[in-house]
## 1
Amino acid sequence: MRWALDWKRIPHRRKALFVGYVPRAFLKTGQLSLPILIVDGKGIADSTRIIAELERRKPEAPLYPADPALRERALALEDFFDEELGHCLRTVVIGDVWERDPRLAVELLAIGQPDAPLWMARVMLPSMRAFYRARHGINPATQARARAEVEAALDRLERELGPNGYLVGDSFSVADLTAAALLGPLVRPPELEYAIPEELVPPYLREYQQSLAGRDAMAFVREMYGRHRGASAEIGAG
């Protein structure tokens, strides 16, 4: 959502939600998930629906291809990466950290958060860990499957890449944005919206990143960030 707002140069204010976000999310949208866009007093949940609303309100700098067939393909890929790659990647990365070092998992999830919620999260660590794992279906069985699912998703990404480096047609689309944004924290390109301190990247996660570093999918992420991430349109951003 951040990338879409910045891509379209839509001025906006961001508010990070961490501990206790579920009741607030439900009151705004009737759902339990983030991100949420508040526009004209209405809350819209889910990045797919948010981007659709942004396209409707500001078609300039489009993320949907004009050609109907290409648009259908771009939306299908967006759905695949959002629903398939996103879930299994979270299970591999954050699920592994929750299992090995719950305190570090809290630090990673709290990047960009004020100090008070982080302090609360540390106090609530056992219940927060249990909630997160239950909320996202993270358990030994799903963790065992997730790495193979990530590999399969990266295989598909690489099969779909065109000769010009884009997933659909000849220009940047919602498919490219979704795949690159989801993989961004794993690749950590210089243009990533928030810095992940080296001390928060444990050796086993760094080893996993290095095992994928030579893949064309990782090069694609670096290329999309380098070409298209651009400056923030957030009000008050530096």
## 2
Amino acid sequence: MDSPQSKTARWFADEVHPHAASLRAYLRGAFPGVRDVEDVVQESYLRIWRAQARGSVASARHFLFRVARNLALDLVRRDHRAPVRAAGDLAALDAADEAPSARAAAETAERVALLAAALDALSPRHREVVILCKLQARSHREAATLLGISEKTVAEHLYRAVHRLGEELQRRGVESFGR
């Protein structure tokens, strides 16, 4: 006979974990101001685990997305309420002005827009792998664990995604994306 915890673990693997990718995509799209989507996802997992242990989850997907939405909203509200602290006499600080020129800032913004458009042209799975491995600098092993796929599959997705990104950037008139 299965223990209550092993039943909850099986339920989690069957009913909750399959929604991981769509939950991350939803949070990134709906709450771009949330800096660490992974923290929201992990806290959502913890809360749904506890709720299921109490037997109060009727629909795993609905509950998971509702909890994640509420957590993300709380983070956004907290960021907006954060007080601004006085820094004292800024003129007395010995700080060099390292702000980029208007031209450099415009070029960077254009490059970011082109990259974002090229990323949007990828399949959702390829986009996830690129974001995890290239933008968040996670290892193939970490990405594989997060996505529930093998490291070899992550490497294959990454290879194909980078190739397609290059093609998409060339299609948009970008010869070289590096500095």
